Amino acid sequence: MPFHKTLGRSSFTPEVAIQTHLCIASWRGVMLHSVVWGNPDSPISSIRKWKGHSDMSPSSQIPYRPTRYNEGEMLKRARDFREYMNRRRSVRNFSPDPVPRQLIELAILAAATAPSGANIQPWHFVAVGSPSLKRQIRLAAETVEREFYEGARRDQQWLRDLEPLGTTWEKPFLEAAPWLVAVFEERYGRSPDGSRINPYYSKESVSIACGLFITAIHYMGLATVPYTPAPMAFLSNILDRPDNERPLVLFPVGYPAPDATVPDQPRKAKEAVLEWM
């Protein structure tokens, strides 16, 4: 099962069809603690069987030699990166300017480098550029949102907390953004013999991947906002996802509109987020 699927824009050539599977990567065997390798029912054992490995020995090791900087360079890099990330903001006003598909692909590939429980990599990304699909997603999302803002699911405290953001049940950014990237958590997989592959810490693992995706989008000069309507089952239906996948978050991606604004809200002070012991 490839982890990345693209639903293309109408401007693509016929070779870039609307439901193109980019077979970019597949599940990989990794070295685990011996107790995992000795368990024939573990996901990693099933994956190794899937890939044709009959033995239960750990996978081979490769050298890891990252650049080691001096402390002065490390401090400069850390400060530069922190300052760069401090400029990141969640954006809901997007320019209609097209964003090259390759940028979205590279951001997803960066996200897919995230660590995961037992290296199961339980994520699947669907990149949506089709205007008709984006329209369907917006209409379904607004139905859910209107119930939250005005209907029986209205949560007064939550609405008060949302007031500084100026959000409503209307979500035009779901159509305005050139791309929507839906992220699904793979709750389980299937090996070729039909046995079930259960991932470890799947929600935590996919959440880490989402953080890397946001960072990659910001780094390349684009903008996004993590959008999580509840319930999100409509995404599985519209995007025709299998039962083993659960939608976790939807990212509209694009350039900020020329007149885009964001709430003037400070981040928490260092003392509120850090404690030394």
Question: What would the keywords be for this entry?
Answer:
13% strand, alpha+beta, 277 residues
Description of the molecule:
- Helices cover 35% and strands 13% of the residues.
- α4 (101-111) crosses α8 (202-219).
- A six-stranded mixed beta sheet has the order 2-1-3-4-8-7.
- The protein contains ten helices and eight strands.
- β5 (189-190) and β6 (196-197) form a beta hairpin.
- The termini are far apart.
- It has one domain (4-58, 74-273): NADH Oxidase.
- It has helices spanning 34-37, 43-50, 71-86, 101-111, 131-150, 156-162, 173-176, 202-219, 233-238, 270-273, and strands at 4-7, 19-21, 123-128, 179-186, 189-190, 196-197, 223-224, 245-254.
- It is an alpha+beta fold.
How is this structure best summarized?
With 277 residues, this protein is an alpha+beta fold. It has helices spanning 34-37, 43-50, 71-86, 101-111, 131-150, 156-162, 173-176, 202-219, 233-238, 270-273, and strands spanning 4-7, 19-21, 123-128, 179-186, 189-190, 196-197, 223-224, 245-254.
